[in-house]
């Protein structure tokens, strides 16, 4: 089998259930067609009926910077982008960041898990115990993310992957740990991004910034990702090698990690070569390509080129 691709579906077989001493949690051990092992946390999928010998289909939900795979098995009842009925537990009136009234719905799925989502006020006359039709927007870690089919996303008009101009209008402090920059888009809609993720960008109130629209992996909401003031996606830069480490995955495979620092002194981990490269030393500069930005962090690809002189 070729390398697994993020977002694609593949067939796996549940091989066994293990308890890892490192975190005292139980995992399903899955095997792909090449007999390669993968781990799936048991706690998210207790209602899926998984047991040794079960054949399942999983989406590659994420491949992280050190090459670890995160799988999302197909839900036994629900599918993404399809509509189902749910029983309403309760409805709470709230206001959103634009001070517009919303109805905060709490419903139960077929496993009696509580799920919440928001709806515009006055769209429906519903009460506790009624059934409501919802679109399953995403399934992640066994959790359903729902919306009303007729209602558009609050970022309607903004297209994922495209760049728009936003204005930083203020900061908002809910708690010391939950401070946000409030950005206004071209439709005068407001969006909150975590202050701690972007404080090193040096934003000022009234400043205009370019943001690429990305979909939140957890909620499928459209999220503005400000351009990094120092780096551009697709460009190559030299980064100082700060440290090396070797990690062993759950199945005993050793992975070499190179730790570099950006101009903001943030550490970034990159997969190193499988074989030792004697030219790669602490203090040397490694050429890397910037592949993406997410939550104020840069993601790098090792170009395996060392600068012979100091910068």
Write up what this structure looks like.
There is one protein chain. By secondary structure, this protein is an all-beta fold. It has four domains: 9-73, OB fold (Dihydrolipoamide Acetyltransferase, E2P) (Beta Barrel); 83-147; 163-226, Beta Barrel (OB fold (Dihydrolipoamide Acetyltransferase, E2P)), CATH 2.40.50; 236-307, Beta Barrel (OB fold (Dihydrolipoamide Acetyltransferase, E2P)). The protein has one helix and 20 strands. The protein has one helix at 195-198, and strands at 9-20, 25-31, 37-41, 55-63, 69-73, 83-95, 101-108, 114-120, 131-140, 143-147, 163-175, 178-184, 190-194, 208-215, 222-226, 236-248, 254-261, 267-271, 285-294, 297-307. The strands form four sheets. Strands 3-2-1-4-5 form a five-stranded antiparallel beta sheet, with no helix packed on it. Strand 1 (9-20) and strand 2 form a beta hairpin. The two termini are 42 Å apart. The model has no long low-confidence stretch (mean pLDDT 87).
CATH topology of the largest domain: OB fold (Dihydrolipoamide Acetyltransferase, E2P)
Output the strand order for the largest sheet.
3-2-1-4-5
User: What count of structural domains?
Assistant: 4
Question: At the first level of CATH, what is the class of the largest domain?
Answer: Mainly Beta
Q: Main β-sheet, in a few words?
A: 5 strands, antiparallel
Number of strands: 20
N-C termini distance: 42 Å
In what range is the share of β-strand residues? over 45%
């Amino acid at each position: 089998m070729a390398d697994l691709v993020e977002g694609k579906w593949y067939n796996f077989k549940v091989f066994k259930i293990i308890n890892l001493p490192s975190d005292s949690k139980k995992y399903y051990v899955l095997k792909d067609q090449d007999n390669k092992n993968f781990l799936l946390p048991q706690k998210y999928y207790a209602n899926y009926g998984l047991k040794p010998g079960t054949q399942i289909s999983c989406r590659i939900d994420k491949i992280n910077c050190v090459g670890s795979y995160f799988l999302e098995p197909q839900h036994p009842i629900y599918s993404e982008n399809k509509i189902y009925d749910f029983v309403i537990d309760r409805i709470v009136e709230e206001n959103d960041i634009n001070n517009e009234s919303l109805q905060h719905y709490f419903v139960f799925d077929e496993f009696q898990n509580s799920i919440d989502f928001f709806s515009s006020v006055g769209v429906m006359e519903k009460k506790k115990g009624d059934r409501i039709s919802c679109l399953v927007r995403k399934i992640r870690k066994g959790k359903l993310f729902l919306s009303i089919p007729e209602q558009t996303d609050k970022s309607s008009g903004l297209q994922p992957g495209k760049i728009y101009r936003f204005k930083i209008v203020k900061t908002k402090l809910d708690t010391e740990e939950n401070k946000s920059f409030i950005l206004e888009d071209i439709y005068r809609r407001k969006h909150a991004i975590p202050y701690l993720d972007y404080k090193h960008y040096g934003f000022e109130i009234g400043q205009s910034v370019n943001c690429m629209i990305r979909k939140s992996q957890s909620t499928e909401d459209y999220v503005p990702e400000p351009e990094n003031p120092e780096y551009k996606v697709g460009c190559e830069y030299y980064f100082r090698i700060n440290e090396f480490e070797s990690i062993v995955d759950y199945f005993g495979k050793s992975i070499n990690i190179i730790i570099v620092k950006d101009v903001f002194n943030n550490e970034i981990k990159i997969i190193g070569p499988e074989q030792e490269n004697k030219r790669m030393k602490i203090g040397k500069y490694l050429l890397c390509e910037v592949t993406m930005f997410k939550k104020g962090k840069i993601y790098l690809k090792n170009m395996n080129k060392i600068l012979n002189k100091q910068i």
